[in-house]
Amino acid sequence: MAFELPALPYPKDALAPTMSAETFDYHHGKHHKAYVDKTNGFVTEKGLEGKSLVEVIKHAKETGDKGLFNNSAQIWNHTFFWNSLTPDYAAPSGKLAELITAEFGSTEELVKKLVAESTNHFASGWGWLVLEGDKLKVTSLHDADTPVVYDYKPLLTIDVWEHAYYIDYRNARPGYLGALTGKILNWKFAEQNLDGEGVSRADQAG
């Protein structure tokens, strides 16, 4: 069965004005869909039908197939990103809140580091909050690179490709990051990923 464009976890106007329905029309409806369509073409061409999305990503990485990797990894990254956002903001709690306090001192300090990492990331890519060992870490990855091929657990991500913010913020990445981290980050999703229950939403994309 071919991969399909995953539905958004909320209506496309649910995050406005932080992220508009028009942005979702392009970002989800065109960019994300293009990655799905191109991946399906590669999968058929290379005889990889029946493999899961994660299996396809890892196969592409191991074989150095950049075209397949870039497109399949972007399916996963984008699905994870949509779930990293929510119209029902709630502050971190439980084990996640404890880890944040231990590593960063406060959620505010963590958000500052995540914004700084994402702002200073050169060109296209992704800002990430991950669990490495038993500690939280803020990092970023270039282009389509993805935690799927690394030895740490992704908790939240922020898309810093220009198509994530060129409509609503006229390419002003800092404004986009400030609004997103202040209003619509899905800490509940991060808590679920910490417990091993949330990441499957991206693993099962398609």
TrEMBL record:
As its record notes, the protein acts as a catalyst of: 2 superoxide + 2 H(+) = H2O2 + O2
What residues does the Manganese/iron superoxide dismutase C-terminal domain cover? 92-193
Which keywords accompany this UniProt record? Metal-binding, Oxidoreductase
Does Metal-binding appear among the keywords? yes
Q: What is its EC number?
A: 1.15.1.1
- What GO molecular function terms would the record report? superoxide dismutase activity
* Pfam hit, one: Sod_Fe_N
Domain Manganese/iron superoxide dismutase N-terminal per the UniProt entry, residue ranges:
3-85
- Cited InterPro entries: Mn/Fe_SOD, Mn/Fe_SOD_BS, Mn/Fe_SOD_C, Mn/Fe_SOD_N, Mn/Fe_SOD_N_sf, SOD_C_sf
Instruction: Spell out the PROSITE patterns in the cross-references.
Output: SOD_MN
Extract the PANTHER family matched here. Answer: SUPEROXIDE DISMUTASE (PTHR42769), SUPEROXIDE DISMUTASE [FE] 2, CHLOROPLASTIC (PTHR42769:SF3)
- Describe the family membership recorded for this protein in Swiss-Prot or TrEMBL: Belongs to the iron/manganese superoxide dismutase family.
Function comment: Destroys radicals which are normally produced within the cells and which are toxic to biological systems.
- The name under which this protein is listed is Superoxide dismutase
Q: Which organism is it from?
A: Sphingomonas immobilis
